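Aminopyrimidine aminohydrolase
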Amino acid sequence: MDWSTKAWESIEEIYTQILNLSFIKELTSGTLEREKFNFYLEQDSIYLAEFGKVLAGIACKLDKSEHRKIFLSFALDTVAVEQALHQFYLQNRKKVVEASPSCLLYTCYIHKQLATTSIEEAVAAILPCFWIYKKVGDYILENQIPGENQYQNWIDTYGGDEFSEAVELAIDICNELAKGTTICNQNKMIDAFVMASKLEWMFWKSAYEMEEWPVKSNIIYV
Ligand SMILES: Cc1ncc(CN)c(N)n1
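Structure:
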């Protein structure tokens, strides 16, 4: 069994719980309140900015030039496509938004992986960002009720064939890196993959709840 098969089997339950989230159910039916979707997109813009930096950082650490090129293209293309999607829905709204606790936790986690763990673990930590979104996009495409859905543009970005190519490349690189490393490190890669998958679940849950910080501040800038 290759590394990615074991990794996906390790998160089957988390994935099922993602599909059962109200956010995903209402995105599928198109009934998700726009306010919750906008909250999600604003937090996702913060997430994607950090995700892009981590992808570029991973590229710098990869030994194979082919892998480096792929990660640099992820940093440029994939993130650009997603940011364009945000502009479509938010019409370049320039609201200053603070990262929610879950968003901050997730972005700090992927930066921590890049800064303090092996390159294999760092790559494993970003794989759920690709793979879970692809699965969720396909799931929504297959299960949505035919007709107008105000979130169709979002659904089409992740479901269907275009995003698949990037996802397959990311999975293949993980498998190749896993093959070239120790069993112990392969297991650490699984841990990173599982943790990032939990953080994906939290990110959607926190968007639906429009998560706030439990303590407020009254910042006075100079
Ligand atoms: C939180 C999150 N995770 C993953 C993706 C898809 N790259 C995203 N846009 N946002």
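DSSP finds nine helices and no strands in the chain.
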